[in-house]
Amino acid sequence: MIQMVLRPRTGNPWVIGLHHCVQARAYDDDDLLIFKDIGLRVADALNSLIILKNMRESEENLRRAQAVGQVGSWLLNIATNRLEWSAETYRIFGIPQQQPVDLETFAAATHPDDRDFVLKAWGEAMAGASYDIEHRIVVDGQTRWVKERAQIERDSEGRLLTGVGTVQDITQSRKVEEKLRTLSTAVEQSPLSVVITDLDAMIQYVNPHFTNATGYSREEIIGQNPRILQSGQTPKETYVELWNALANGKIWRGELINKRKNGELYWEEAHIVPVVNAAGATTHYVAVKLEITERKKAELALKQYKVVIDTVNDGFWITDAMGNMLEANAAYAKMSGYSVDELVNMHASQLEAIEQSMEEMRVHIEKVIARGHERFETRHRHKDGHEIDVEVSATFMPELQQFFVFIHDITKRKRAEQEVHTLAFYDALTGLPNRRLLNDRVKTAIAAGKRSGRYGAVMFLDLDNFKPLNDTYGHDVGDLLLVEVAQRLTRCVREADTVARFGGDEFVVVLGELDPGKGESARQAGIVAEKICAALAEPYALKHQREGSAETTIEHRCTSSIGVALFVNHEVSAEEILKYADMAMYQAKEAGRNRIHFHTA
Q1: Which of 6, 38, 399, 572 has the fewest Cβ atoms nearer than 10 Å?
Q2: In the chain, domain spans
Q3: How far apart are CA 483 and CA 495, in angstroms?
């Protein structure tokens, strides 16, 4: 006999035995009924086995599907508070499958900040509301996001029976959503224009800055081609380069001159990027554009300024607040003998020919800064060492902390002024002060004597043997003698004293700041007068060359007659003192020449 137990999905187990008979037996109707009943029971048991197998396969497929989709399921017996979780639900919550779970387990796993919200939503679901929420849970110390949906089942009388629901891990999608939200906010609030087009260059999106920059509303621009912005002033080659780059999947960068809705032109710096999908195919184009109108205007103004600066005849500098050269034009390079590259590595003080104290420099800079602009004259030193008279016009730019300096070469003007001054105040032959300047010098000496209480002296001298030389050899030779006399006189006096040519062969010497006593002052003046007499009495070797003849040396001797007038705290004029000295000189001549005579009041 063979015996086996069949366990149907429903009902009690069946014990079945098969008996084998060696001898043939005739079965009656009762036996047939028994065998028929056995067959039905076997069929029912086999059917239960098949159903069980299919259910287990379905459960496994569901488990796999839940794992792939990160969706778990749960069943809650509301009466007993017994909670059943699927394997994926256990995995999502990070709880071992062998651990029993209930509502307290679920609440403990919920993020503390979301717990009240979740429990409130569940309570509302028990009252009849839908349960479809997103909240956070804490798994192994890490925060994760889940989406839950549930349905409450009731009996015919409305009593709560069970709750069945799903839970899905949406952590990654939340991260993506957050990134997209951040990106969207950044694009919407961007100070740059952002445009998205399809492959046919039809505009699908623009951000608020684009509408502000162009004057077009979103409704007006969506579905349009960016050609609507073209001004006709962007070179055609630019668009050819643009589309060639995009056709090859490359980013294009460049500048465009576009037109606003009101017709106003504006410049943009654009970056256009092909958007590529996972398969590597371009799906859209994104343009990010920065308006550079003000910068382009500034660049244009700078170009114009450079043209002006490089074409003017005046020199030009830019220095920082410390005087370091930042820029120089070609005109100043030519003026100074340095190259532009050499100049920009120099300090402005290196070009000054006039030594200034630090205090003077500080005061000068403070004036420029305080007034904003200052004009003054100074001298610069050429690279080869010679000096240049310049007029400087300096402007301080506080926002840049820089000095803008124009330098005008006034060397010729200063030379002309000096020539005029020389002609007005100096003797053309000897270079000594003339009568006009002599009169000023005497007045200055008188004023100094009044202040100091010291005597001064005026010496009037005349050459004793000049006329015969002039008559014999001519005025050219006589002029040579006068020049030599002027040089000897200058060597006989102090630098502060004055030697002047009064006219013809007459000279005047002014001595200042002698002794406070008259006697000592007369002695000091007499020493100088004797020194002059001795110097002028030395022989003269006058080298002279007439046209067409060889150079000759003319030996000559001459003496001088000197009249001296002392003065101190005088109320008399310079003209009167000169007159006194002249009278004394004539008295010296009358006394036999080559003499010194003092005027006595």
Answers
A1: 399
A2: 2-63, 70-175, 190-297, 312-414, 426-598
A3: 18
Tell me the three state secondary structure of residue 507: strand
* 344-390 confidence digits (pLDDT tens): 989 988 888 876 555 666 777 888 999 989 888 888 999 999 999 99
**CATH architecture label of 190-297:** 2-Layer Sandwich (3.30)
**SS3 (DSSP) at 95:** coil
**112: pLDDT strictly greater than 90:** yes
- pLDDT beyond 80 at 15: no
Parallel, antiparallel, or unpaired for β 596-598 and 560-567? parallel
Identify the CA nearest to 572 among candidates 443, 427, 418, 388: 443
User: Where are the extended beta strands (E) located within 120-159?
Assistant: 131-139, 142-154
Superfamily of segment(s) 312-414: PAS domain (3.30.450.20)
285 backbone φψ class: left, alpha, beta (φ>0; ψ -120 to 50):
beta
- Adjacency order of strands within the sheet including 82-85: 82-85, 71-77, 160-169, 142-154, 131-139
Mean pLDDT of 469-496: 93
pTM comes to: 0.47
Q: Which fold has domain 70-175?
A: Beta-Lactamase (3.30.450)
| Contact call for residues 110 and 144 (beta carbons, < 8 A) | no
Gyration radius of the chain's alpha carbons: 59
Higher pLDDT, 392 or 421: 392
Assign a CATH topology to domain 426-598: Alpha-Beta Plaits (3.30.70)
In this predicted structure, the answer to whether residue 192 has a pLDDT above a threshold of 70 is: yes
pLDDT of 148 strictly over 60: yes
The separation between CA 181 and the C-alpha centre of its own chain, rounded to angstroms, equals: 35
Amino acid residing at 380? H
Question: What is the pLDDT, as a whole number, of residue 46?
Answer: 54
Nearest to residue 258, comparing CAs of 245, 239, 285?
239
Distances (CA, A) of 208 to 189, 224, 261, 479: 7, 16, 15, 93
pLDDT over threshold 70, residue 65: no
Q: CA-to-CA distance for 70 and 139, rounded, in angstroms?
A: 15
Q: Which two tokens stand for residue 274?
A: 């092909």
Active-site amino acid positions: 505
Spatial CA neighbour of 207 closest among 221, 223, 225, 227: 221
On the question of a common fold for 70-175 and 426-598, the answer reads no
The 8-class DSSP code of residue 381 comes to: E
Q: Which two tokens stand for residue 280?
A: 């590597």
* Opening angle at CA 76, ends 70 and 78, nearest 5: 155
**What residue has token string 């089942």?**
153
